[in-house]
Amino acid sequence: MKRPNFLIVMTDQQRWDHLGCYGNPVVKTPAIDALAAEGQRFDAFHVTTPICQPNRACLMTGQISTVNGCRQNGIPLGLDSVTYADVLRSAGWRTGMIGKSHLQNVTDIPAPARQPRGKGEIPAEWRGTRQQRSGPDYANEIRAKWAGGNEQEMPTPYYGFDHVRLCIGHGDQVEGHYSQWLHDRHPDPDSLRGPENALDAPEDRVPQCWRSALPEELHPTRYVADEACAFLDAQDEDTPFLLLMSFPDPHHPFTAPGRWADLYDPAEVQLPATAQRPLAAHADLPAAARHPYAMGDADPHSHWPFHLDEAALRRVIALNYGAISFVDQEIARVMAHLLARGLDEDTVVVFMSDHGDYMGDHGTILKMGLHYQSVIRVPFIWRDTADRRTAGVSARQASAIDFAPTLLQRAGLRIPLGMQGDDVFAADAPAAPVLIEDPGIAVFADADARSAITTLVDDGWRMSLLEDAPDWGELYDLTADPEEEHNLWSAPEAKDRKLAMLEALARRQISLRNLTLCPTARA
């Protein structure tokens, strides 16, 4: 039997319901909707951690972040990790990654100084309990090194990918292999990029938004699709391929180019039901839960979540929709190219996002903070090859660690020791509860901060515990309360459910212990 090709399409920081196939009546996504119509749309797929770098590591390794070691942005994935690309490559697949990787650090900002606890001295290089993932082998994605078309030499295979074309950054401020491509097409591309060159006046802008002067034909979204088509052109019908096509958009800053910036009228976008109920109105929230939003409100040009008024939220969402529709158009181009090359019937196509965005929930945007569905729930669409293609909607709960095992099982390969997820199509086992780990925002300033948020999603309920608020938690009935407005943590009628969720959390954490070296782990 012919081995399948795999085309994995990933967007960055896309809210799950910002797609037509997930019920959004405004945003236009015909190409993605077509994949959903021909394949399986998963309605309960979640992150394993709601932050870019660690969740991408979870997708690659099939391991939770406290096992693969990439616990937060700023901690690279170890080069000794086994990824799904490694496994497919070793079994004969040609492997390619185009676009955003974020498996290594994208800045060279030094980590905050830390000192070992207690008495006595130890050598500086042994101050941690894990050897540092630093040095030239972990500096391949430093954005500044690629600026100006300064091409860097990439070691391959790179986490299992033999063909690599990087986009590093977001909006119109992207570097990587894209930098040289851009410089080949414009004599001074920096004159088109960034807020200082934007087409709108600073006083007319919303934080994190500007009208970019970069045209769509020079945009990173176009580059990713062009390079994907070139990769497909290099394939032959006798060797299967894996291609990860990873768009940097619609992540902030929101700078949809040209006509895409004007495609949606802010007055016509739909705000979440909670948009007019900011977090400040929630009297029961402890200081630990409010902290990320206070940081963002103090500096709305940072990466922390912050509040906006209704008019500003509408402008942000309209630009976000524009970026998504631009990505959708480029996906359509790649799908047409796949068909023209005669590869369509033999290719599994998967669409996903690495995590979500509040996009107006409780008047906020961006990520980090409380684990609302807009941040932890993500789109996941699986369109199989012609001989196995079935259409439908799956309510099976799953998360990022389930992706690698699912891919490898579809390829007919055994799951390596240490991968912790399950095949989402396995009919012989019930879906496990979804465990979501999050060290919290405070670790960016203090790596030892006790700010973790741990969430369990199971059987239509979400429970979240905050490390630095031990007497408080969240418990939501997602079926009866999809907007997560009625916290049942202290409700007498939910006592039994709370106890059941606490037990399920403990059992799930036990089951996800590090199995890498365990001889009884499944293969």
UniProtKB/TrEMBL annotation:
This is Sulfatase. One of its GO terms (molecular function) is arylsulfatase activity. Belongs to the sulfatase family. Pfam families: Sulfatase. It comes from the Bacteria. Residues 4-412 form the Sulfatase N-terminal domain. It comes from Pararhodobacter oceanensis.
